[in-house]
Hints:
By secondary structure, chain A is of the alpha/beta class. Chain A contains ten helices and 16 strands.
Amino acid sequence: MILTVTLNTALDITYHVPSLRPHTSHRVTEVTERPGGKGLNVARVLAALGHEVTVTGFVGGATGRALQDQLASVPGVMDALVPVTGPTRRTIAVVDTATGDTTQLNEPGPLVSSAEWRAFQDAYEDLLPAASAVALCGSLPPGVPVGAYAQLVRTARSASVPVLLDTSGEPLRRGVAARPDLVKPNTDELAELTGSHEPFQATRDARRRGAHTVVASLGPEGLLALNAEGHWRATPPAPVEGNPTGAGDSVVAGLLSGLVEGLAWPERLSRAVALSAASVLAPVAGEFDRSAYEELVNHVTVDLFQRQVETW
Amino acid sequence: MILTVTLNTALDITYHVPSLRPHTSHRVTEVTERPGGKGLNVARVLAALGHEVTVTGFVGGATGRALQDQLASVPGVMDALVPVTGPTRRTIAVVDTATGDTTQLNEPGPLVSSAEWRAFQDAYEDLLPAASAVALCGSLPPGVPVGAYAQLVRTARSASVPVLLDTSGEPLRRGVAARPDLVKPNTDELAELTGSHEPFQATRDARRRGAHTVVASLGPEGLLALNAEGHWRATPPAPVEGNPTGAGDSVVAGLLSGLVEGLAWPERLSRAVALSAASVLAPVAGEFDRSAYEELVNHVTVDLFQRQVETW
């Protein structure tokens, strides 16, 4: 199975209102609710691709119970979430019905105790032997040490399980230094990590910091990938219009599934780009338009810039 | 005991954000959560005044479980809520930390089936014999017939239990016609009911529609009350600044507690006005500033305009 880690899971709530006007009262016309957090979105896409997936991370409180109830009905996803005392956070997306514009309100997440953090590390170690790959996804809840992902990267490497890291800020900086197999920053995260806004330069710099492969997401323009085997750029055939939330999670799912299926890098990148575009066409994170994906995957352009990158 | 009915209970969530800006993303800095809905606020104030209170209405889903867990820790309030399949609604108050301005997002509430509505009516009938008074509070969830309050008023009257109705729109219009002992509209609700924006005229008209006593809330200017015994105006000593949410619920608690304690009308009105002002001084609905209340209650002015109102 593929293991995805979401330390700061969320109950993702979407409200439709005619138009959000600050300091007034709104009747919400439509409410939807689903299990959220990057690793849970990745898991749903992997399951839809036919992979066995196990999700872990923290879950707690009434919101956590609601999340787990809903997760139980997602086929192909095994729940190995670890209980905490604090409640799982909510995220609220308020969509203006007329324009589709979204206002986001994100709770911080439960305060995790050091005993709870140790309990998670034990659970993670127990899950790794059965995993063909692991993805570490998203922000850290309060109380979890900033070096948490670095620790989880080292544990995966000790267990010889390929590990992908998708986070930002200081947890990314420390996590990269622990030498994950793959990091997948977007351009903002990459610039924050390296200080460079030039994607080629920044990707190279991110790799120098320790990641074996860096796949930089350029949003609608596709992906840049750099590792010891080459330096590629993968571009979708045309830009797509829709909801970009979860597009990055689909990139992670594409890369991980390609890894465990033993695809060559150009095929992994084509899959990741096509899944990402197909998820922009789906209304919610963690889903994708399957027929669009099957069409797009044959029309992604992958350019190889450099066959052999210097080893360092 | 005093019975309060809240058909559309709510989990009231308050978010603090630095400043709400539509179509951007916000990290919520503070989250609070409490049992909500007008009847639950009324119950908390009554319990704080030393009364035994039972709350009923509908409750369901994960949000309902959270509401009941929190209600269990409120001393003096007995939970007699009736389960439904649909989830209890959330209300979200987004407070701008800098200015205190609030943006409100209200979910519609669970869809109640006709079997669930019948189950509620049975539970209500079973509770009435032990009740010294009953308050029917707030909006109706989807699926509950618009004449629901009229029915509940008639049932209370058949059981000889004094009944107060605090709602708006068509449920108020129909409920008034069933001749409740008391209605407590605010000026907007009164104008909607009667077509008149002149409070004296509108109060008189509301009484003519069937309520034995009409207590109109004029916000910071106090109360107008009209029944067969007289026509009063109760005015607080000075306007207070604060959070007006829940001020109307404190009026209801003041009136009900005065009723079951057998206070004369001027004392009931003084209590209601003082509680209302003291609840504006408290940060959340269902609470009040006790020392402010004890000070204010001796300084409310009650003017009697007319000793004997025509019977009709």
